[in-house]
Amino acid sequence: MSTPTALPAATAPTAPTAPARTGGPLRALRHALALAGRSLLKTARTPEALIDVTIQPAIFLVLFTYIFGGALAAGDRGAYLQFLVPGLLGQSIALAGVSLGTNLNNDITKGVFDRFRSLPIARSAPLVGAVLADVARYLVLFCFLMGFASLMGFRVQTGPLELLAALGVSVAFALSFCWISVLVGMAVRTPGAVQGVMFLLVLPLSFGSDVFVDAATMPGWLRAFVDVNPITHLVGVVRGLLLGGPVAGDLAWTGGWIAFFLVVFVPLALRAYNRRA
Amino acid sequence: MTYAIDADGLRKRFGETQALDGVSLRVPQGRVLGVLGPNGAGKTTAVRILATLLRPDAGTARIGGLDVVRDAARVRRTIGLTGQYASVDEDLTGVQNLVLIGRLLDLSGRDARRRAGELLEWFELTAAASRRAGTYSGGMRRRLDLAASLVGRPAVVFLDEPTTGLDPAKREAMWDVVRSLVADGSTVLLTTQYLEEADQLADEITVIDHGRVIAHDTPVGLKRQAGRRTLTVVPVDAADAPAVAGLLARVSGEEPVPLAGGGASVPVLDEAAMGAAVDGLAAAGVAVSEFSLHLPTLDEVFAALTQPSREEVPA
Q1: Do A27 and B85 touch (CB under 8 A)?
Q2: Which end of chain B has fewer CB atoms within 10 angstroms, the N or the C?
Q3: Inter-chain residue contact A118 with B104, CB threshold 8 Å
């Protein structure tokens, strides 16, 4: 290491610490964006972290179409594909949130968050930053799934505006739903446990819906669950937008669920984060 | 006198463990306090409270006059923390790690990059600046971690066991960094298990064990307080050895330990024994080749201070 004389430029403790250029929400947003940038750099360095928003939904799409498609839609695989793609988008969004909690838990275990906590930034900034970075993953998911599905023969029955609207609703839903994963990531001890808890939650939600089959074939008690399931309603909106049909009812439900996730899970996640020493 | 770090009666309990049981610390501005203690003594808990990462159950702490609980946000503007485990982001490069911290400290992109460049150069990481921190050696990671804590030019720097696990050469390089921080006016609180490190760097030392402060003094004062000094006299002529031994026994009242070279050592409790020994040697006309008074090493002091409390703990 060089001699202490190299120091003066480096530290001058009497100099004011970096002045806040702007206060309030704008500054908090800038910090969150800087931290989102960090998450994106990490994703870019480990492309395998995108498997759950690319190859995995593609494999599901192929499997379900060719295994169940023939049986479920009376031999009309094309019709089943049209039905399945919006559903699989819903399931993939729920599954894609899992890695957020896993990554955050990992950050905490490794002590990186100690550094952030000792900085003069909003306590919520690291969490909000990580959530914002996930927008990129959901964009990749939507575009990849739509592209791959169209190669398999899926056709949007409406127009580009409806496609964009479906993208908007999907991302909005994803950004609220993923706070459950953030909460679990703060609350349990290890990244593996985050995954375990989240799968327990996501699998009943994604299968106990009309993602794969028409709920009319299910027993009444399960239909009651399907009818309130947030995934059901998200998929309903996307089906309506991409294939044509009514969306208002499902959209209202979805808006309600988005508000519910934000109002309940954001504060809970922040509290769990603050408590975690 | 205002203190850069002023903690009073800090208590913190984790479940069954009383990690801190009334710890008070004071560090004047521009000084280095060494916090010394065995593993599990409570050093890291104390640092985490002072750095606003933990709230104390009881007691108060101020950094530059600001309360670490009520004014946590302002305290964070004045501190830098280097943890026991280097908390750098392994997936980012060295420069990305530092620029991120700069951005979070509200530096512009340009200023953040310039500051990162300065620090990387100072810590001799320029060549590795564009490599992932995950590929760094342990010593490089520590340096990057320390650099990250200095991005905001903190007035108070907390170093939690900054050299644990480093080889001796890297340890000394780290000591140089601490010395130059102090030369620039920073206040440093350094926890360590290494007595030599505290001896080298600290103006004052607080010894913590079982969550309590068991001693506080300057390094020299601590040695004087906790251990007996040793007077060693070696005569030029080995034939004078019995006379020297007899004299040492007389002035100290203790049994001298003979040395291989013909001299002898004896523990002494007060300064008067020195003068008596000098007078006695002059009166007897004994020429001496060595006449010295040794303070105990800090290791001996530490052992003396912590041993009794260690014994209370069932193994």
Answers
A1: no
A2: C
A3: no
Q: What's the pLDDT at B45?
A: 93
Q: What is the model's pLDDT at position A12?
A: 41
B191 touches chain A (CB under 8 A): no
Instruction: Give the integer Cα–Cα distance in Å for B107 and B113.
Output: 9
The yes-or-no verdict on residue B312 having pLDDT over 50 is: no
User: Could you tell me the residue ranges of all domains in chain B?
Assistant: 3-88+136-218, 228-294
- pLDDT mean across residues, chain A: 88
**Locate tokens 């997936």: which residue?**
B91
Selection from A183, A185, A182, A205 nearest residue A194 by Cα: A185
Chain B residues near residue A18 by CB distance under 8 angstroms: 77, 102, 105-107, 152
Six-digit token string for B167: 């080889």
Residue B101 distance to chain A (closest CA, Å) = 8
What is the pLDDT averaged over residues B39-49?
91
Q: From the CA of B184, how many Å to the nearest CA of chain A?
A: 6
Residue of B nearest to A4 (CA): B180
Using a CB-CB distance cutoff of 8 angstroms, which residues of chain B are in contact with residue A111?
Answer: 83, 85-87
**Mean predicted confidence (pLDDT) in B103-121:** 95
Do B4 and B27 touch, CB atoms closer than 8 A?
Answer: yes
CB contact under 8 A, A115 and B124: no
Number of other CB atoms surrounding residue B122 within 10 Å: 23
* Secondary structure E strands in chain B: 3-14, 17-28, 32-36, 58-63, 66-67, 79-82, 156-160, 187-192, 204-209, 212-217, 229-235, 257-258, 264-268, 288-294
What is the span of the domain harbouring residue A100? 25-275
Measured from the Cβ of residue B26, the count of other Cβ atoms closer than 10 Å reads 16
Residue A19 maps to a domain:
no
pLDDT digits (tens, 9 = 90+) for A105-154: 988 888 788 888 889 998 889 999 999 999 999 999 999 999 999 999 99
User: Which amino acid appears at position A54 of this protein?
Assistant: T
Does 3.30.530.20 match the CATH number of domain B3-88+136-218? Answer: no
**Does residue A177 fall inside a structural domain?**
yes
According to DSSP, residue A47 is labeled: G
- Taking the CA atoms of residue A136, residue A140, residue A142 and residue A143 in that order, the dihedral angle to the nearest 10 degrees is 130
Cα(A215)–Cα(A104) distance, integer angstroms: 36
d(CA B279, CA B248): 12
Cβ contact B83–A111 (<8 Å): yes
* Tokens describing residue A190: 């290890």
Residues of chain A by 3-state class (helix, strand, coil), percent to 5: 80, 0, 20
Which region among A103-117, B106-120, B264-278 has the lowest average model confidence (pLDDT)?
A: B264-278
Q: Is A24 left (phi over 0), alpha (psi -120 to 50) or beta?
A: left
Q: Which CATH number fits domain B228-294: 3.30.70, 2.60.40, 3.30.450, 2.40.10?
A: 3.30.70
CB-based contact B91 A117, cutoff 8 Å:
no
User: Is the ipTM here above 0.90?
Assistant: no
The residue among A63 and B255 whose pLDDT is bigger is A63
Least confident range from B92-101, B206-215, B288-297: namely B288-297
Contacts of A52 (CB under 8 A, 6+ apart): A92, A95, A96, A98, A99
pLDDT, chain B, mean: 88
